[in-house]
Write a structure and sequence with these properties.
Layout lengths: L7 E6 L11 E3 L6 E8 L15 E15 L6 H8 E7 L8 E7 L8 E8 L6 E19 L5 E8 L1 E3 L21 E5 L3 E2 L8 E2 L7 E9 L25 E9 L4 H7 L4 E8 L11 E11 L13 E8 L10 E6 L5
Antiparallel strand pairs: 1-2, 1-7, 3-4, 4-9, 5-6, 6-19, 7-8, 8-9, 8-10, 8-14, 11-16, 12-13, 14-15, 15-18, 16-17, 17-18, 17-19
């Protein structure tokens, strides 16, 4: 490494909670995980000692946290999705040569959650040296996927970490030679209609026509992981992996006011399906292209009623929440088609 630009961020799934493993998957992301050494002070006082006493200021716990944000690639994204959602199938799309794999990510329902080792390698001033910060016991609590006009599709994941190691060996970063990114230009969204959920090898479809008035869309999947587990014997470190809470599926979209479909869905609290599909423009096997698809069988809109904007095109900024509709097998599917043979 030779400059301040030469930082890396990699991760790998752990076999045992908190036991470091060498990273195998790398994202083109900044390294910004924080690690707090929390302290507490004794309540005792001595006459004539009018400041806090050094030997009564003690370590209470260790805790890391942070976000990992990057543009969504056409290869290598599956492990990151799995880190948050937890459930996945991975199958070859029939008659593809070379083989195209379809990952279908869904919400897991089993504790404990998988944990990961995340390693940041940071250059010193001028890139003279580089040092690894290896975070173990990392649990990913949420992911935000967002698409805005004129932009690349972005992912932002939030994590908590158990421990920071400074002497674990640096893993050399490696990246797929032929990866690209998904963009707003390659996206299409359908709202409503009758949904056909994705299968192991087929993407989802809906009877609704593609909408032509949506300017941006974001979805947040939050696992609501618990914040306990600092127990006796842990020496200030979390003793166990986090446990699952109730998932929250929410998001926001901005739509130009072209008709009353969204207004009426809001006023009537109607449940509508969402199918958002991004394709890369270059096929990777026959007619098959890298694909990222977000499928929500039932959302309810939380607003808003259209209002004028001083003569500008009227836009609706609409928050929404996704639900289990009682009929679909899953409340969310994220489909990822790629040349990756494994997550």
């Amino acid at each position: 490494m030779t400059t301040q630009l030469d930082f890396t961020l990699g991760m790998a799934r752990e076999t045992t909670y908190g036991t470091a493993v060498a990273p195998t998957r790398f994202a083109e992301s900044e390294a910004k995980i924080k690690y707090d050494v929390k302290t507490t002070d004794s309540k005792g006082l001595r006459p004539g000692k009018n400041v806090k006493r050094l030997n009564r200021n003690v370590i209470a716990r260790f805790e890391g946290s942070g976000d990992v944000a990057f543009d969504v690639p056409t290869r290598g994204f599956g492990l990151w999705l799995n880190a948050v959602l937890g459930g996945v199938t991975n199958n070859v799309v029939p008659s593809t040569v070379p083989a195209v794999y379809q990952q279908v990510h869904t919400l897991s329902t089993s504790d404990p959650v998988p944990t990961f080792t995340v390693q940041e390698v940071l250059p010193t001033l001028g890139g003279v040296n580089s040092y690894p910060h290896t975070f173990t016991g990392c649990a990913f609590d949420s992911i935000e996927l967002s698409a805005k006009e004129g932009r690349i599709v972005e992912a932002k994941l939030s994590l908590t970490a158990r421990e920071l190691l400074t002497s674990f060996a640096t893993s050399a970063a490696s990246y797929p030679a032929d990866d690209a990114v998904f963009t707003f230009v390659g996206g299409a969204i359908s709202l409503g209609g009758t949904l056909t959920a994705p299968t192991a090898t087929a993407i989802a479809t809906t009877t609704a026509a593609a909408a032509a008035n949506v300017a941006d869309f974001s979805l947040t999947v939050k696992r609501s992981l618990d914040s306990d587990g600092w127990n006796l014997g842990g020496k200030g470190l979390r003793s166990r992996a986090p446990l699952l809470g109730m998932p929250e599926l929410s998001g926001k979209l901005t739509a130009e006011y072209t008709d009353n479909t969204l207004r009426d869905a809001y006023l009537g609290k109607q449940a509508i399906a969402v199918v958002l599909t991004f394709e890369h423009n270059v096929a990777i096997s026959g007619v098959h292209k890298p694909t990222l698809q977000i499928v929500l069988p039932a959302i309810r809109l939380n607003g808003e009623v259209p209002a004028s904007d001083g003569g500008n095109a009227i836009k609706q900024s609409i928050d929404f929440e996704a639900f289990d509709d009682g009929a679909s097998a899953q409340p969310i599917y994220v489909v990822y088609r790629t040349l990756d043979t494994a997550l």
